[in-house]
Each structure stands twice: as structure tokens, then as C-alpha cells.
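Board work, copied verbatim: RNA polymerase subunit sigma-70
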Amino acid sequence: MGNMEAAGEPALWERSLRGDGDAFGLVFDRHNARVFRHAYGFLRNRHDAEDATAAAFLELWRRRAKVRLVNGSVLPWLLTTTTNVARNHQRAARRYHSFLSALPREVESPDAAEEAMARNPYEALEPELAAAVLALGSADRQLVALVVVAGCSIGDAADVLDVTASAAKTRLHRARLKLRAALEPHPPAAAGLAEPRALEGELP
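↓ predict structure ↓
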């Protein structure tokens, strides 16, 4: 075990591919904290982030034969998978709370515990930026998560997503424009309202 702990990640991954659970455990130890922080950045809930982290590593084990190392590491693949798990988790939460809101309401006022259960748990905790990233299309979301959130280079992210660096750079630029538009405050006046001067002469 001591020799394995000193081994590089590519060597550990080769052993993991052959079904070596101890080697996979060492890969888990190397990246668990980083993956958890990535999940927590989106979900803002420790329990949910732990679930997302566990799901990402489970997928890593199940799909290990198809995983591509980037710079000798599975971390970029893990971060991309964690982003998708977080997205799916929030979709499920929204469906659940939509279902609750559609149920017939009792005439009596619910108690405080029932009201707390009926509220969306992400409404107050979810940062606007995380919500905007998770609202992007799948490819853009993965790219932003790798480059902007996780700090990977454009080249590494392109390798993970199997696109050229040039295509990744263009897509990232467009994704940033979408995020900027999503985060900009709405104008105070509704579009299409006539200016006061346009109404002159119409009053009796």
C-alpha cells in the first residue's frame, strides 16, 4: 500500500481500470475535497454537495473504461460530471416543489414546519451566478464550470469536451455574454411603454 500511495495518478488509474479498489480509493482521496468544493459552489448545501460528490465518484468507477485523463488526471472529468449531477439535482428539486405546489391546499393555515418544507430550499441559498451557469446549455455549462469555476485551462477543457481549443474559446466567449446578460438588472421601465411626450394632446 505504501508503494501505491507514492505512485502517480496515471499508475493508480491503470490499476483502477483493472478493478483495483485500493488504487481507486487513493484516487478518491486525492480529489474528494476538490470535487466537494466544486459541488458546494453550485448547491450551497453541505448534504447535497456530499451526495453530488458521491454520485460523481460512483460514475467515475462505473464508467472508468471510457474516462480520458487530462494532464494525467481524472479531475477535469470529475468536475464536469459533478456539474451535471448538480444540474440534475436542482431539476429534481424544482419538479418536487412544483408537485407540492400543485397539491390541494388545506383550508387551515399550515404550521411553520410545513411552510418550511414547501419552500424551495435553494431560493435563498443559491447564488445568482450559480443559477445562471446551471441555466446554460449542457456544453456551455460544462465549459464554464471547467474554465471559470474550476480554473482549468482552455486547452484542458477542450480535451475533456473533445473539441478544439479554438472552438472552446469561441464557445466560452459566447457563454460569458449569456451570463453577463442574465446577471444584468432588468431596466426599471417596462419595454414598449410610451414616453410622456407621446401622449401630449390626447388628454381631454
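The two ends are 91 Å apart (CA to CA).
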